Amino acid sequence: MKESIHLFGRLYARLALLTLAVETLVRIILLFNEQTTDLGFRFGEWLQIFLLGAVNDLCMATICFVFLWLYVMSIGKARFGKPVGYVLLAVLIGAFCYVAFGHTIFDEYGSVVPAIAAGLIGYWAISFALRLFVPSLRQRWGRSWLGILLVLYVGLILFNGLCEYFFWSEFGVRYNFIAVDYLVYTNEVVGNIMESYPVVPMMLGLLLLTLLITWLLFRRPLARYDALYGWRWKCVATPIYAAAGILAVLVLGFNTRFQNSENVYVNELQANGLYKFYDAFLKNELDYEQFYLTLPQAEAEATVHALYGSEDTNRRHIAGVADAPRYNIVLITLESMSASYMERFGSHDGITPVLDSLYERSLAFDRVFATGNRTVRGLEAVTLSLPPCPGQSIIKRPNNANMHSTGAMLRDKGYTVRYFYGGNSYFDNMETFFGGNGYDIVDQRQYAPEEITFANIWGVCDEDAYRKVIRTLGEDAASGKPFFAHVMSVSNHRPFTYPDGRIPIPHDAKSRAGGVMYSDYALGEFFREAARQPWFDQTIFVVTADHCASSAGKTEIPLDKYHIPALIYAPSLIEPRIVDHTVSQIDLMPTLFALMGLEYDSYFYGRDALAEDFEPRAFIATYQDLGYLEGDLFTVLSPVRRAEQYRLTPTAEEPFAMQPTDTIDQTHLNRAISLYQTSSIWNRR
After folding, report:
1. pLDDT digits (tens, 9 = 90+) for 51-98
2. Nearest 5 degrees, angle CA 225-CA 226-CA 230?
3. Domains of the chain, each with CATH number or no CATH
């Protein structure tokens, strides 16, 4: 037992020491990086950088050791004995057959997910069978996998050090939400890295170094692989490691209080990069003032107050019309509904006949741009009417209750306010956000079994969701109060499955075209049923998209990939017309409120798009690039206090084509900075 514990400890110690060596070297290199412009550290700050930094690295190494600990705990001979071994093999074969030939949750995700799942379980079953029936393979097999794991550990430690160097070279900080963002835009990021750095030589060098270090550090421990068998030593080592892991988590959290120096480099250099990545993932935000171009706050606020005629945090009174009728409102945000799918905007696929028909009978907008490329961005835009903030949407951030939302404003005016979602609203933090901002939530958990005719991983099909909306709104209308219903569809989302027999595209084709066409079909069924309801003539419908289906393009923010449909439909109340100037997604609800003549205090950055003094503009962003379109000029604010401008050069084939400008229009740039800066600061939670 003593030998086993000694071997286990040696594996941990060598990985921990390697981590400390690599991270210390990285700190030294970052000190001499061109991004590190201030080295005027006090003695105590040098101690923080290297002493506390080493403690943080050791804690992170302890936590990450968990995967190797799990593998070592699985090493043993008992699972190959009779009858346990045969039972386990039968379970694995059964699981493989079920995944490979049955309909499982993996099929709901479509693409290659079912094949990957079947392949992994199949490999597991075959490898277990070989070791079960050929005992001589067990030791070599186990030693080989331990070696592979150690190679992965060493390689990842070195790779992380290399990544931290390049990340610091570009941004001057440890990992933050930009690094998290890179996981979202994998194709774009990998392409950029391949074009910017000699990736192949670096990776080959890294591989050779990894193999060399693994051989030097672990060839002898691997030769003693047999010592890892047995369970007695594991009963001793497990609680020790568990206690060390818990202590490491607590110390990492505690040490963050020492990362509040006025010198940002002190804070960043002492931090552990992986922990900063984890922390950024949880916080979902980038600090605007730290990473983007800024103006003096008083100047930025003055610009916004002049634009909106507002004061304080953009508060202004919207006069409205005396005794304006309180019409019902139904806002429908369609999942991933790009304008390019519509015949009106050039498609010849014929997959949106309902939307195209509604455009002819509505107050319709030809140039509406989504604020972002995720559902939460679209929901944020129509609910809070704010420019997108850097990092993650406000919806996914903590402390986002009691904001100045459209729902809260209407609830104060006596409306019944509901958010309808066909799935489980815990997803993307929707339940917390909408519940905390004046909405009653109706999601899949409120559906009776007989109300569900079809569902996939995302929730009930759009037809079931719309039927639930009709039933619930009928009950709300009977109360005599006006209602506001925000409906989020789900069917136009991978795996693109829907009930059979509704549209010409087969329900099991799992194609984007099928998802779009079914979503459009279900919308048509909703309006046919809604038109039969007694409340229909007193209801105004807003139909738009949360975002487009794809945001990738030739530029960082390709405008055509943010162009969405939007219309306001009320056949007995609003005359059809086309609005052909630029409108932001955040303008839709303020425009509706102006049409209804509502009086309210507004904190919205969205404006009445039909007003005579409306300046056509749009806010368009990724997680880190913040775009502002006004006229034919498009400004993009990026981290590391960078700004670029593009001029629209539309053609018949590319109506949203752009070219970089040779010079910066400072007036336009200052307006973009003022709007994003004030919104980020005033709405920080």
Report:
1. 999 999 999 999 999 999 988 888 877 778 888 888 989 999 999 998
2. 120
3. 2-283 (no CATH), 297-682 (3.40.720.10)
